[in-house]
Amino acid sequence: MATSTSSNTAITDPYASLNGVATDKTTSKKSTTADDIQSQFMTMLVTQLQNQDPLNPMQSAEMTSQLAQINTVSGIEKLNSTLEKVLNIYDDGQSMQAAAMLGKNVLVPGGNIGLTDGQAVGGFELESDADKVVLTIKDENGSVVNTVDMGATKAGSHLYAWDGKNEAGTVSANGVYTVTVEATKGDTKVTSQPLQVGTVSAVVRGTSGFQLDVGTGTLINYDDVRQIL
After folding, report:
1. Which of 203, 101, 108 is CA-nearest to residue 211?
2. Residue 103 CA to chain centroid, in angstroms?
3. pLDDT tens digits, residue range 153-179?
4. What is the pLDDT of residues 71-107, one digit of tens each?
5. Among residues 7, 62, 160, 200, which is most buried (max CB within 10 A)?
6. Rounded distance, CA 139 to CA 177, Å?
């Protein structure tokens, strides 16, 4: 009489626990390390070999494939752990750098410039070299107060000072003015933007990184700082 052989333990998915899938409704999901994953896999593989059908044993190619998969999973776990440590170190370093900026004047994107007793400082940024850069200064009503030709300028961020004089040579009243930038190289327009000076009064951790309160009414991303004055 022929004797049939059956397995007492059914393992339909040897990677179920690796993927966080519970085989029992009462089993809770928990995090595992790369070493835990390897240990679990080897336990399941041995169990699978012990309970395999002797008439249809696991093929060597199948075993090799499973070993390759667990090595890949383990490698990814270790890589994720390393990346997390690197990001934590970077985050801590950025926190210290941002805190060190408290009380300092910085140059950030923005077109406002404050004039006090004939003295004002601002900046602008060029994406590439320009043959000609012209700054247009306007008052709070949008009227042009003066234009300043900065001449040929290299790419990057640049600082400038305005003596407050209008086109007639008279010093303008104290207040906040706006500045626009127009840059060209030959007949081609060069991408540019005005920069403004602000004083860092607070450092805030935002969802996208650290942000700075520089008195502009909105928080500035740490990476938006062009110069520390």
Report:
1. 203
2. 24
3. 999 999 999 999 999 999 999 999 999
4. 676 666 666 666 676 655 555 556 666 677 888 999 9
5. 200
6. 5
